Amino acid sequence: MKFLVLNGPNINFLGIREPGIYGKSTYNDLMQTVTDYAVTRGVEIEFYQSNCEGALVDAIQKAYFEKIDGIIFNPAAYTHTSIAILDAVKAVSIPTVEVHLSDVDSREDYRKISYIREAAVATFSGHGFKGYTMAVDFLIDYLNGAIK
Ligand code: DQA
Question: CB count, 10 Å around CB of 110?
Fold first, then answer.
């Protein structure tokens, strides 16, 4: 199995941005954590991060042509605004797990809206880096038919 770990705007600034909310670890640390975990689960991971909405749509469409099995996606602020990203996830029909480092549902009201959620097979929010490894586990089970 091959998964795309897709991250939206400002996730490349982990460790610098609001460490009280997002922690002191960096985006490189996040990639290392997910890579190490993926090895133990025997899955392949590709990473992509962009601050641009259209580039994220392009990455989702590219995943379709690359026959990516699942997407682990933190759309960051575009979670709360982007119908284009929702449409892209719906268009490719690749099982997609929504992930947020912070617990978006217990923050500002505008973060409680998630456009992507209706197209996601699961959401992990507020678990920090662990949300990404939980998403790896979920996708493996989902693709093996253990979760409907
Ligand atoms: C985030 C939460 C979003 O509301 C915010 O815009 C982000 C990160 C998270 O991982 O907690 O940039 O998706």
Answer: 10
